[in-house]
Design goal:
Layout lengths: L2 H13 L5 E12 L9 E17 L4 E6 L6 E4 L11 H13 L7 E7 L9 H17 L5 H16 L6 H8 L4 E6 L5 E5 L4 E7 L11 H15 L9 H7 L5 H30 L5 H19 L6 H11 L4 E7 L6 E7 L3 H16 L4 E5 L6 E5 L3
Parallel strand pairs: 3-5
Antiparallel strand pairs: 1-2, 1-12, 2-5, 2-6, 3-4, 6-7, 8-10, 8-11, 9-10
Length: 392
């Protein structure tokens, strides 16, 4: 049974009538461009066919009432006075409501049933998917125009200021603006986007190490502060403004740790743009020539080395998964994806080898770590959208 069907049936069971609408927002996997978003840089994620869904109908009393198929605790609050209530999935709903109202939007209440299949804590942006599906729900019942960049920015503020996670804009932006069949190059300063097709006859495979570390409690915020310190040394607003030549010319002005953090961001921005060029050449040259797919894979491999050695956000399990992936027939390249310290690896794989690749990697990883991984062959999907609406 699909999640759309599940939330619809549960809504009918709880509320005695079909929902007025069903909305969804996807998780994402980032192909390349890691920890560059909060440095105003370039990222290349794609929205995946795992998402958070809400079946809902509007209310007239400006209250929000939510039931989750994934968590026992229901959520209920008034839009007249949105207050923090501790940890839990409901804080994401409250945070989005708060930031939308802070931006001047008049919101209508709603009641709904929520469910998702984005793995939590895996680095696939389950929190951004929840934020964006909540924003899509509010926009629909409140008759707000759906501007993906604006809504993503407001959801990012909710995560930064309400939840307390100092994330960049990438996760919310790809969940808001993804395009089926494509990755999305995002300029995290201007929020301009460009749809970029995957190389022909390739697919992205997500390799979940089944290890977790919560980002709010991790060294993520420390890495962000180190990047900001490096930008001040270069006297620029963000590391996005530092070219590889600039970095080499002034590298001696940085201490060892800050130098490594800055080197990752500067070179990762360059890798992201080179990957886009190679993907476009791959589409132009067709499926007979995999030279450009090989180049994308090499850039992904180099990205992992940089994340492991310079940014120091990998882990033993992530490294083991990357090695297992890179050894398999049909794999062009692999790297950790997401904030790090646990979670997932993404691999670019020849499409006709994807099933055998997944089985071989799973066996290799189990042998190396004694952990059973979760593996997802992913399809690129659209961003947040209304998928069903009952005429009224």
């Amino acid at each position: 049974m699909s999640l759309q069907t599940e939330v619809t049936l549960e809504f009918e069971r709880r509320f005695g009538a079909p929902p007025a609408l069903v909305v969804r927002a996807p998780g994402r996997v980032n192909l390349i461009g890691e920890h560059t978003d909060y440095n105003d840089g370039f990222v290349l994620p794609m929205a995946i066919d795992r998402a958070v869904w809400i079946a809902l109908r509007p209310r007239d009393d400006r209250r929000v009432v939510g039931h989750s198929l994934d968590f026992d605790r229901p959520v209920a609050f008034s839009l007249e006075s949105v207050e923090r209530g501790g940890a839990g999935w409901g804080e994401y709903l409250k945070g989005v409501a708060w930031t939308l109202q802070e931006a001047g939007h008049t919101l209508r209440g709603w009641e709904g049933v929520v469910a998702g299949d984005v793995p939590i804590g895996a680095g696939l942006s389950s929190s951004a998917a929840l934020e964006m599906v909540t924003a899509r729900a509010f926009a629909a019942v409140s008759h707000l125009p759906w501007n993906p960049a604006e809504m993503a920015t407001l959801a990012q503020r909710a995560e930064n200021e309400w939840v307390g996670m100092k994330c960049g804009i990438m996760d919310q932006m790809i969940s808001a603006a993804g395009k089926a069949g494509h990755a999305l190059l995002i300029d995290c300063r201007s929020l301009e986007t460009q749809a970029v097709p995957l190389p022909p006859d390739t697919t992205a495979v997500v390799l979940d190490t089944a290890t977790r570390r919560g980002l709010v409690d991790s060294a993520y915020n420390e890495r962000r502060a180190q990047c900001e310190a490096a930008a001040r040394t270069f006297d620029v607003p963000a590391l996005r403004d530092v070219s590889e030549a600039d970095f080499r010319a002034r590298v001696d002005q940085l201490d060892g740790v800050t130098r490594r953090r800055a080197r990752h961001v500067v070179t990762e921005n360059a890798r992201a743009l080179r990957a886009v060029d190679a993907m476009r050449r791959a589409r132009a040259s067709g499926s007979e020539d995999d030279t450009n797919a090989l180049e994308v894979g090499q850039l992904m491999n180099a990205s992992h080395v940089s994340l492991r050695e310079d940014f120091e956000v990998s882990s033993g399990e992530l490294n083991a998964m990357v090695i297992c992936a890179q050894q398999q027939e049909g794999c062009y390249g692999a790297r950790m994806t997401g904030g790090g310290f646990g979670g997932c690896v993404v691999a670019l794989v020849r499409a006709d080898a994807a099933r055998a690749f997944a089985e071989a990697v799973a066996a290799c990883y189990r042998e190396e770590t004694d952990i059973a991984p979760n593996i997802y062959v992913c399809t690129a999907t659209n961003g947040a959208e209304i998928v069903a609406e009952t005429p009224r």
